[in-house]
Amino acid sequence: MISLGWLIAGPFIYFAGAVFVCITAYKIIALLRMPRPFRWDLYPLPQRGPAGSKYQKLDFGKQKMPFYLLNELWEMAQEILVIKRLFANNPRLWLGSYSLHTGLYLGVLWVILLAAGAIVQINTAALNSAIFAGLFFLTTVVGAATLILGFIGSVYLLLRRYIDADLRAMSDAVSYLNLWLMIAMFGSALAAWLVADGSFSYLRNQIADLMLFKPTAPSHQLITLEFFFFGLFLMYLPFSRMLHFAAKYFFYHNIMWDDEAMTPGSKLEQERLKELAYRPQWTAPHIKANRSWLEQVEEEKKSK
User: Fold this and answer.
1) The domain over range 4-35+83-256 is classified in CATH as 1.20.950.20
2) pTM (global) more than 0.90
């Protein structure tokens, strides 16, 4: 039977998931195809180990520089898991950001556990197994932590933006929209858990139905609301600044930590030559249209 609950917990969620996957993939591919950005050349670099810089080696241009993968992974882990730089520069803001990000990370794990539990549930022979019992318990613990931490972090950050004059001055409407949307998503799910689905069994049933392509209307309006805001968040995410979860990789590896040398005939040199051949279509006192960057520089040299 077609109802609003069925539409939200069925076709709407399928559509939201498809939008999230397709747009996120499209934007990551676009990032991969973008011209190489200017590098910061800030040292020390984690992948260079204890020295932190290739420039501390004699004849560094003639040597193959060491690459310490574990050092790089450790640096990434500190930033991803504990947001190290924000903690060092703004501990008060870090409290809310850490809570929110932990809620989001646990949320990914929670969805995976719900999906795994739904798969086991579909296989009725495994319903009484130790695997299902373990998944049931872990899903409840992780789900509760997800909703509580995510909601508290979102509310804290929103209040900080209203209270802190400096933070308020640098916050635009989109900053507030992002936080209000996450408050709605975590808040509706938190209300559904506290009022209607304390063990997340109804939610697991809904996911099992989605996996079987036989969506059903949720048994409670709060669960319907939970699905609505989750789907809305999924669709909004790849269009928002929150896509930094993917873009940060390129920021660190292509801007902060990239110290590849440009040698004759290298791929890096070919990329730069291609960029120098670009012909801007706009003009300014120092820029002429339809002239490549290289031609602009050569003309500037001749004029001097």
Assistant:
1) yes
2) no
